[in-house]
Amino acid sequence: MKTKLSPFALASMLSVQLFAAEDKPPADDWKPCPSNQASKQYPQYNSEGRVKFRIVAPEAKSVGCTFRDSSEFKKGEDGAWYGHTRPLDEGFHYYMIKIDGAEVPDPNSHYFYGASRWGSAVEIPAKDADFYALKNVPHGQLREVYYFSKSSDKTRHIYVYTPPDYDKDATKRYPALYLQHGGGEDETGWGRQGHAGLIMDNLIAEGKAKPFIIVMENGGVSGPRPTNAPPAGAGPGGRGAFNFSAFEKVVTQDLIPYIDANFRTLSDQPNRAMAGLSMGGMQTRGIAPSHLDKFSHIGVFSGGSIAVTNITDMPKFKEMVKLVFVSYGSSELGTNRVGGRGFGGDPKANTAALKEAGINAVFYESPNTGHEWLAWRRSLYQFAPLLFKD
Amino acid sequence: MKTKLSPFALASMLSVQLFAAEDKPPADDWKPCPSNQASKQYPQYNSEGRVKFRIVAPEAKSVGCTFRDSSEFKKGEDGAWYGHTRPLDEGFHYYMIKIDGAEVPDPNSHYFYGASRWGSAVEIPAKDADFYALKNVPHGQLREVYYFSKSSDKTRHIYVYTPPDYDKDATKRYPALYLQHGGGEDETGWGRQGHAGLIMDNLIAEGKAKPFIIVMENGGVSGPRPTNAPPAGAGPGGRGAFNFSAFEKVVTQDLIPYIDANFRTLSDQPNRAMAGLSMGGMQTRGIAPSHLDKFSHIGVFSGGSIAVTNITDMPKFKEMVKLVFVSYGSSELGTNRVGGRGFGGDPKANTAALKEAGINAVFYESPNTGHEWLAWRRSLYQFAPLLFKD
After folding, report:
1. Domain-terminating residue out of A100, A125, A150
2. The pTM is what?
3. Tens digits of per-residue pLDDT, A354-390?
4. Would the CB atoms of B192 and A231 count as touching at under 8 Å?
5. Which residue of B has its CA nearest to A149?
6. Which domain holds residue A75?
7. B144 min Cα distance to partner chain A (Å)
8. ipTM over 0.95
9. What's the structural domain count of chain A?
10. How close is the nearest chain B Cα to the Cα of A292, in Å?
11. Does residue B276 contact residue B303 with C-beta atoms inside 8 Å?
């Protein structure tokens, strides 16, 4: 009897092994995602980071989701459709459900503004989720505010986080951080999926960050806004609607004066910061260095970096800028990834060069995350304690 | 030749006429609904109050919506499905889209919490929509607030409206209205679909209402709330989760003390009101009259009324209660409707009897509305100017 395997047999064995690996049932330790609507048991996540969906669609021919490499959705014993994703990174992921070719929000999830639309997202709780958990500590307020912008000739919609003790002492004044969302997102992002308020509440409760105000603008200028639109997040979020120089005017001519007149800010340059994620990081790099009379602290999360060669007046930059903070999700870095590919060079090397040039420059890499909100929540968590130090 | 018609011919003619009436194409003056997501052209409404949907579902066998008596949905020339509703009342209506038996949110609409879930709604602008329009007037703030409730042993999520000048003068104090949503809704309702902030901003700008604070609680006590839930509207909204006496404790023992300690309220009885819609009106009738040391003004919108026979201590009620305001949508009234059927008698007659008994009682009927938000926005618009008069 021959022991040598024919090439066909080998291929067949490999294929069986591959099939077995793929066919291994997912770990059966499913729990409802914290991003679900109250009392909804699905979607669920497991210890492998897979997400399982349950969709009631009795007469559908096919059901699926927008996560690539998901399992086939099949009808369960209860007649509902079930399917699961590949293992995903911990954190927050936008998605939609597909029913016979229609892309629709999952009726079980909460809805968030991202990818230029309100739609579904799942949260797979991170191992370090405690830093953005809702705790019984003093809480700040997330305030929905309308203000009139002369330069864009319209009433604009923003959120302002005020720290826990803001209303206790009417004489106390606070520094302010202007914090921008990413492309396809809007002014609801940082307060909602970003948990900026909870992150700050927890940092302040532990004495790790100075209390400050956070201002969250839409960042889009040219998009139309219907009268009687719902109060939250109706503005334009797509990158198409963004006009960087128009937004620069909004920030410097309208928004900062409005905030300084209507909130108890410390309104001098040492007490004002700007930061943003992805497109918001690009806006920050575009606006803050050109207005060093206004901003002393700069944060760029997954949105490129600042190269020494791009600083036209280094002595002034050194004198005025108290912090340049640059961060990326770990899997964004590398030659073929977002962090390495564009944005004018390697962000880590650029930031190290800034430091060598005598600037307080900090690089942070969020472990095991890509271009998503867990990386940006962590970036805020790392960035906030470095701000407005005496 | 006979001129007399046979019964069959008559029936046939009638049927043709009926068919013709039903088959008349809807008025072709469609406009995008203001409840759409930014830049979405559908749903649209027309001058008859019909709403037209456009759903992309290439492989679906059938598409529809949850509005009864809607037209059949058919594929248009662009391959998308189109269908429209019967003429609806002006105002705000919850709905879902049906795709091959699945009930899902419309990917084109904004999402609102109602019917115990986040889902779609359409707004057909009312002829009097100006009173809740976003205008270039001084705006108050809608604040998202967490507070710890000892009686329910959890951190609870509320919205607080502060009037336009609240932050201008740190010594000024304001009356407060505790304002409740309906069954299957949550604390997001009044600020979002209710436009409570815009209604107050406009009333205050015109000098028609005194500025006051509005506090919006979830009203549900027993429902669980996941840690790391998204900040907005994650609480229980279904009537099943509500425990009226537990909520009474939350309001009187936790919420009022929290608000009085953390906002600049006038904290005496003449400066505190309670109101609510539907189930929130029932909560108001249940709580306010039992705590006349705390509340002086009572508003019940589409939630029953207060009968003279239900007042146990009339002299005290007369002394303490400065206003009882009762309202209904016009089509709720009548013997077989909500307003007439339950809630202990005819609300209009009950309110007239209160007035005859010497109480400042006001009945308001919202024209051409049913049990929905246009009636309740108008109710707030009528109620607010009557509050906290010197």
Report:
1. A125
2. 0.90
3. 999 999 999 999 999 999 999 999 999 999 999 999 7
4. yes
5. B136
6. 25-125
7. 5
8. no
9. 2
10. 29
11. yes
